[in-house]
Sequence to fold (202 residues):
Amino acid sequence: MKSASATTFDEAYYQRFYFDKKTSVVDPAHMERLGTFVCSYLKYLRVPVNRVLDVGCGIGLWKGIVAQHFPEAMYQGVEFSPYLCERFGWQQGSVVDYAADAPYDLVICQGVLPYLSPPDLKAALLNLGRLTQGALYVEAVSREDFERDIIDEEITDNRVFRHRAELYRRGLREGAIELGGGVWLSRRAELPLFALEQAGGQ
Fold:
């Protein structure tokens, strides 16, 4: 199987999963809690956040969150969907090969990686490491989540790959240290961490 194409993410896709309240996967209360958690954790760790990259930014749910918690930070939304780029003005690109002039203090990648084939996923995980000099937030459903029956398949897009969680972790560990909750710290970040703040004592 190949990775999802750009045409997958057309107007009908976003109408189904984001704009129609009856079928939307977006929970505003969840996003508020998530944003507060991620941003507060980075403040606690003293990660300086001046430049933020949201790769696969969708309709821009993180833009307001970033503005609330890091009002001085520059937010860059990158999106694979031509429809969203035209509608919201995002920069078009893919997590697989997006290149930046300089790494970012915070990179966000939410709900994107399960659409990638194993070879593209491997490239994307390495690329996330290259793009990050501070912290990284990654959210991706794994095969284990489906096996444990904690995914609502009625509202979840069934065109995703069911990669093992370890596949994600193995690729991310190349450039980052897992802190838990989907938060990773770049190995280039010169910040002290207690052993128990690192998942698995990495």
The chain has a mean pLDDT of 93. Residues 28-45 form the longest helix (18 residues). The radius of gyration is 16 Å.
